[in-house]
Write a structure and sequence with these properties.
single chain; 8 helices; disordered C terminus; about 180 residues
């Protein structure tokens, strides 16, 4: 009887605990000595980006760090890849390395999946969604008031409108600043 009561008590906790998939395997010692090595590793990088964008910061810390370094080395040393990541009005949300990397990884992931036709708006939304995942899965970030409008827009399904408004406001502030200089 005690066992039944205890198992009923702990059952909700085990249901709430979510397990995330393991980090995809990759060669940590890659030397990036030829263009072929970049082409050969693109699929691994895409898998790592998907994993990084869908795993909370508190999960698999060592693997997360190594995966992030691998991805950033691949992106920055790649002789044939050029990725433009727009930050614009979102710099207020990217106040530390984890948040910057979340936005960056989401944006890069979108760019790799849509190499032929990159839409800046869609790429920014991918970055924001990745950022939001990290924020919503962090106790401290999710309670930070600065993220409230972003979280609210996402929950209402209005993230695209939020993005448009933020960029319109950013451009109007830039125009105002230019006019003040005259």
């Amino acid at each position: 009887m005690k066992f039944l009561i205890l198992s009923l008590f702990f059952l909700p906790f085990s249901l709430c605990a979510q397990e995330y998939r393991k980090c995809p395997s990759f060669n940590k010692d890659e030397k990036w000595d030829s263009q072929e090595s970049f082409v050969k590793n693109q699929k691994e990088v895409q898998n790592l980006l998907e994993w990084l964008c869908s795993t909370p910061l508190s999960e698999q810390l060592v693997e997360r760090s190594a995966a992030g370094i691998f991805v950033m080395e691949w992106v920055t040393k790649n002789p044939i890849l050029r990725v433009n990541v727009e930050i614009g009005p979102y710099s207020i949300y990217l106040f530390n390395e984890d948040l910057m990397l979340a936005y960056l990884f989401g944006s890069i992931s979108y760019a790799l999946k849509h190499e032929e036709k990159i839409k800046p708006e869609s790429q920014r939304l991918a970055g924001l969604k990745s950022l939001l995942f990290i924020v919503e899965h962090s106790e401290s970030y999710s309670k930070n008031k600065i993220f409230r409008p972003l979280i609210r827009a996402n929950r209402r399904g209005e993230l695209a409108n939020f993005d448009k408004e933020m960029w319109v406001n950013e451009k109007s502030h830039t125009l105002l600043s230019l006019e003040q200089l005259k």
